[in-house]
Design goal:
By secondary structure, the protein is α+β, with helices and mostly antiparallel strands. This is Helix-turn-helix domain-containing protein.
């Protein structure tokens, strides 16, 4: 019964994500064929989502569409993240100065998650999407975040990751991972060329700011030759912008205290 509940929950989110990709009303057969679900269980799932108010069903057209109740679920969190003017300004500033993809990422259990992204207008890019996730030990931002933890905590993340993802090729041993982590601690940033996507590279630095106690990092990424050729320049831009960001945050905090 628990397994069925987990599968049903997963499929609910997959249906909603499919609507996000398609951005239009969809028929039953479009959904179960695209997601490779059994027709009968898809019918029951969509009926349940209609009954709970998360999908609208038009009997005339036989089409489904998410309702505003879906968007309201996370609307408060969106405002917390995206109405943070200082953080948004940081991303905008770094993107304008680098002309590459810039993102703020947050730790999410064994993963990092892109919570704020801005991409350049040129075609030399392969950006992720906001909300996408990658393993901590498989990204520059993830290693940057891990580098600020104790070795014992990193060892637990490594063990859990290898348990759940045994075929992971990177950092075959804990010793390999810690060698990279120590180097990140020493130089203060992480540069990851061509892993896991050969065409892409990224460089990341930690942010002192946290979101509800969740560690954050700032990253700049793009096509590998572009990032490799400009790595030191990109790092200088990032550090300068982060220093400005922290100074603005300090001034805002002092202003708030003075107003009290």
């Amino acid at each position: 019964m628990q397994g069925l509940a987990v599968k049903s929950t997963l499929r609910t989110f997959e249906v909603l994500e499919f609507f996000r990709e398609q951005r239009r009303p969809l028929r039953l057969n479009e959904i179960y064929k695209a997601l490779n679900y059994p027709q009968s269980s898809t019918t029951n799932l969509l009926k349940s989502m209609v009954m709970t108010g998360y999908l609208n069903y038009n009997r005339k057209t036989r089409m489904y569409l998410p309702t505003m109740r879906v968007s309201s679920l996370g609307s408060w969190l969106h405002s917390v993240i995206h109405n943070d003017g200082d953080l948004r300004k940081l991303v905008d500033t770094v993107q304008a100065r680098t002309d590459e993809t810039v993102g703020v990422v947050a730790q999410n259990d064994l993963f990092i998650q892109y919570i704020m992204l801005k991409t350049p207008t040129h075609d030399f890019k392969m950006p992720p999407s906001e909300g996408d996730m990658r393993l901590l030990i498989d990204s520059s931002a993830g290693l940057t975040i891990l580098s600020r933890l104790r070795d014992s905590a990193i060892e637990k993340f490594y063990r859990f990751t290898k348990y759940h993802y045994p075929r992971l090729e990177y950092f075959a041993s804990y010793a390999d991972l810690m060698k990279e982590i120590r180097w990140v601690r020493y130089i203060g940033h992480c540069y990851m060329p061509m892993l896991p996507t050969p065409e892409v590279a990224s460089v990341a630095i930690p942010l002192e700011e946290e979101m509800f106690g969740i560690p954050l990092a700032l990253g700049v990424g793009g096509l590998q030759p572009r990032i490799a050729a400009r790595k030191e320049e990109l790092l200088a831009i990032m550090h300068e912008a982060v220093a400005e960001f922290h100074e603005t945050s300090r001034q805002n905090s002092n202003g708030a205290l003075a107003a009290e």
